[in-house]
Fold this sequence. Notes:
Elements: H1 2-6, H2 19-31, E1 35-39, E2 45-49, H3 51-58
Antiparallel strand pairs: 1-2
Amino acid sequence: MRERAGKSAGFGALSFRSEAAIRKLGETLLAAGLLVEEELAHGGAVVGLTAAGRRALRETGVLDGLVG
């Protein structure tokens, strides 16, 4: 899986950010309803886009004020 991730165009896009900054960004997007966290049967979790999150990717300005 790691090899496949490395081939993704977005791989490493946030490498200049600290782990704390990425966690804060995730929490901000979850709180804004742009992401949703789902618990898996084995106790893990997966994060996905909500309809509002998909809209935010299409429409300029939606993320203004949320991310810096």
